[in-house]
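User: Modeling request: complex.
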Amino acid sequence: MAPEQALEVELKQFIIETLNLEDVKPDDIDPAAPLFVEGLGLDSIDALELGVGLQKKYGIKLSADSAETKKHFASVRALATLVETNRRPA
Amino acid sequence: MSSLSFTLVRWAAWAPGLTTHEAWVDWAQKPWAPRGTDAPALDDVPAMTRRRIERLGRVAYRVAAECEADERGVPAVFSSRHGDSARSVDLLTALAREEALSPTSFGLSVHNAVAGQYSIARKDVANFTSLSAGRWSAEAAFVEAAGLLAEGSPQVLVVVYDASLPPLYTPFGDEPDADFAWAVMLAPGAQVHLDAVTPAASREGAPLPHALEVLQALLTRAPLRDGPWAWRHG
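Assistant: Request completed. Predicted assembly structure:
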């Protein structure tokens, strides 16, 4: 598996665990599909929860309302790009 | 003496080890305080909604939905002495450790979150009230229900639920711990009476939390007097 794909799988698992998506498996999530409203159907509380989770797990701090943040949360793939460029060694 | 009167249209109850009407009828003859972490599955609730309804909420949801069945728009009074106190302790512990709080958990820690999740899951925009009134939280719910009936509601749903206190709060507990929820659909009538009386001492060392004593009295039609309240039947 290519490293970027491995990170996508890791992020899918992270989303499932962080948001308690009990019936969802990593394979159910299309890495290019929207995470919010359409696609996976997440809502604004989930966005906050993911923000806190990203900070805890990857040390990434996002500002709550910037257009930039919105772009990063568009899909698993966008999130992987964000983590790849910003992750700090644990 | 002032008195409130009701008809008990339907009832439902759920606790670990007590999952059927028959089990509760037997229980009422020889009651005990149910404890445990089991929760109903709530298979009828979509997974995306269910993921935010945790143990205590699931138990309350189950009895409310069983009582209300397909009805919508019935005003409901949810009552719990302690509410989701385990969640509050977790949040306070995280705060004390200067950890980030889970926004989801924070949002669900308010006392009316259980009623709110029920309303959202059932797409029911009826009047929902959530209250807590110490040992007499169940009686407070019936007072609220009497008000709603007096205002013209043909029926009112009362949901009473609680969980064992988290260990940190145990030294402050003054009732036996129990994990349970029960619900009654009330209508105007003269089957059950709740009287405000000259306060009597609460019985020390009772085997049940008072909210379950009330359920037992409702199921067996036995009189019950505790503190400023007395129940009678007929």
